[in-house]
Amino acid sequence: MNSSIEELEIASGLKKMLIDAGFTVDSILHYGIDEISTILGIELYVAKIIFIAAKNFQLTKQRSSFLRDSVVAA
Fold it and tell me: What is the CA angle 41-42-43, rounded to 5?
């Protein structure tokens, strides 16, 4: 669960904050920028960086899964 947080392309201090607060990539995407900012007590622009990193991670994971499934089907 937290291993996906470790894979986000953000500063290690932010990763630690997210893990300590119990966030997952899915919960970051669910809560959105405003709630992340409020929950962690951080500026909106920092929450946006976290949200974008989570979204990019999810998209990369989906693409990888799609490519893997395409190769198996071929």
Answer: 135
Render pLDDT for 27-70 as a digit per residue (tens, 0 to 9): 999 999 999 999 999 999 999 999 999 999 999 988 876 656 65
The conformational region for residue 31 under phi > 0 = left, psi -120 to 50 = alpha, else beta, is alpha
Q: How many domains does the chain have?
A: 1
Q: What is the DSSP secondary-structure string of 10-21?
A: S-HHHHHHHHHT
Range of the domain at 33: 2-73
CA distance linking residue 21 with residue 68, whole number of Å: 33
Q: Residue 43 belongs to what H/E stretch?
A: none
